[in-house]
Design brief:
The protein has five helices and no strands. By secondary structure, it is mainly alpha-helical.
Amino acid sequence: MTCWETAFMPVYSSLTHALAAALFDVLWFIEGSDDEQMDPDDAVKILEGVGHLVIKLSNDQRSELIGLLGTMAKAESDPARRAFLEGFPEGLGLLDDAV
């Protein structure tokens, strides 16, 4: 029998890590969706919205997110998801003007 507290132990080291993982999962779904699963125009709007948000992050926030993505990529066992994670910082403009 599983104890409730054990079943719901935190999986992530921080809220930021959990939110970055959730964001990645949503973007991974959108990227892999075909036209029948998601309207292409809606997908573009979402991706552009996320891109707009990340370019407004401070250099420290960008560095933190890039570090989290690197940690997540190293832990990822699916090669396609790992490649997506590794390309994520450049693809969303996190590396532009980053210090």
